[in-house]
Amino acid sequence: MAILAAAAETSSSSSHAGHSQQQQLASTTCKAPASSSSSSEEPNKGVRHLCERGVTALPPRYVLPPSDRPAPPAAPRGIPVIDMARLRSTAPSERAAELARVDAACRDLGFFQAVNHGAGDKARAMLDVAARFFALPFEERAAHMSPDIRAPVRYGTSFNQLNDGVLCWRDFLKLLCNPARLDDVLPSWPHNPSDLREVMSVYARANQGLFRELMKAALEAMGITGQGVLEELDCGTQMMMVNCFPACPEPELTLGMPPHSDYGFLTLLLQDQVNGLEVCQGDDDWLLVDPLPGALIVNVGDHLEIFSNGRYKSVLHRVRVNSTQLRISVASLHSLPPERVIGPAPELLADGTQRRYMDTDLTTFLKYLASSEGKHKTFLQSRRITT
Q1: The predicted structure's pLDDT at residue 361
Q2: Which of 107, 117, 313, 353 has the highest CB neighbour count under 10 A?
Q3: Peptide bond into 72 cis (omega under 30)
Q4: How far apart are CA 267 and CA 135, in angstroms?
Q5: Which residue range is the domain that position 326 belongs to?
Q6: Residue 173 sits in a domain of what CATH number?
Q7: Is residue 209 assigned to a domain?
């Protein structure tokens, strides 16, 4: 379950720097000779730091018990594709057909890929500056480390490093970027690379617009207005998790992220072309997602499952790592304002349908997260009403 709290160079020099920094980042594959202290390296310094120190075997705190280790991956497969150009169509039949696809994807798999979204240039720039951030010297990255899961800007490692019994092979930069307050939080974002704030804020605004389009489509697909929820989402929460999954010396023993579901309404995932995301289809059956070039992967979060009274599914997913390739991804999580209580949409209960979930809010979620590992769907299960 993901955590919430959430002067540019010239284009020619930025492009050159980005290329060289990405080469530097990708070349760190944890294959250099390890020092005698590598295996006892402080885990909270992160996996990039371990790789830079030359670790050649997985430190014990990263080794999963045999029952939790990923089986060898199956061949990557496609997931439902939503064409946003068709959602924007003025032809009623074309839009209706695409809405039906949105509804089916959210009900069945809980995941789909969005194409023709129009944010390609911003997405490519986002991946580039993210790679350059993780290629910075450790001291610069570490300046943003914090044990506080509520911190609006936080560099960290693993999944929930304060509570994880076994650490995960991931470093992340969390940025709170709520749409109504983005200009207020920008000064707290990292100032290196020098174009990070500009590039990431431009992407954050574009991502919020795409989220609103997709939520409008989801409400229409359910046949409800949401009673003003779109306007509330405009002033809601948006958080970006910028993830780095370095090449791992023993990928069969660990995961980049454990099985979890996301807390919000929708998550929009930007990733490079390195496979890693797996979606659970039940009974330990994991689908390795084959990403379409330029697509955004969209998944239903816990709040939308609650709001839809169970019609749309917040599905377990995880991230596996590999021994040769670094992977970069950016998960943008969107939901209502922190103080807003979330329950099933009243329109869905108007005919006497029984509610399936208790109301919840962000405070309840954060308290839960601070006291447990938050893996699997345990938080959502704690809100279910059993009869």
Answers
A1: 85
A2: 117
A3: no
A4: 26
A5: 44-338
A6: 2.60.120.330
A7: yes
Let me know if residue 21 belongs to a domain. no
Beginning with the edge strand found earlier in the chain, give each strand of the sheet holding 266-271 in spatial order: 81-83, 111-115, 296-300, 266-271, 327-335, 237-245, 171-176, 153-157
Phi, psi of 167 (to 5 degrees): -80, 155
Query: Are the beta carbons of 377 and 280 closer than 8 angstroms?
Result: no
Query: Is there a domain that residue 115 lies in?
Result: yes
Tokens of 120: 């390609």
> What's residue 42's pLDDT?
53
Q: What is the pLDDT of residue 208?
A: 97
For the purposes of burial, counting CB atoms within 10 Å of the CB of 325, is it exposed (0-12), middle (13-18) or buried (19 or more)?
middle
Contact 381, 369 (CB under 8 A): no
**Rounded Cα gap, residues 150 and 144, in angstroms:** 13
How crowded is the C-beta side of 7, counted as CA atoms within 13 Å?
A: 0
Residue 239: strand pairing partners: 176, 333
- With H, G, I as helix, E, B as strand and everything else as coil, classify residue 193: coil
Instruction: Look up the pTM and report it.
Output: 0.88
Q: What is the mean pLDDT of each run of 10 residues along the chain (387 residues)?
A: 35 40 49 41 77 92 94 93 97 97 97 98 98 96 86 86 82 92 93 97 97 98 94 94 97 95 95 96 90 96 96 96 96 93 95 94 75 64 85
13: phi then psi, degrees, rounded to nearest 5: -70, -35
C-beta of residue 329 within 8 angstroms of C-beta of residue 244: no
- Each residue's pLDDT tens digit, 231-271: 999 999 999 999 999 999 999 999 999 999 998 999 999 99
Please tell me the predicted confidence (pLDDT) of residue 320: 97
pLDDT for the residue 341 = 93
Burial class (CB in 10 A: 0-12, 13-18, 19+), 334: buried
Q: Are 140 and 130 in contact (CB under 8 A)?
A: no
Domain assignment present for residue 3? The answer is: no
Q: What share of the chain is helix, strand, coil (3-state, %, to 5)?
A: 40, 20, 45
Give one word for 46, left, alpha or beta, with left for phi > 0 and alpha for psi -120 to 50. left
Are the beta carbons of 355 and 344 closer than 8 angstroms? yes
- The domain tally of the chain equals 1
Q: 10 Å Cβ neighbour count for 352?
A: 5
193 touches 22 (CB < 8 A): no
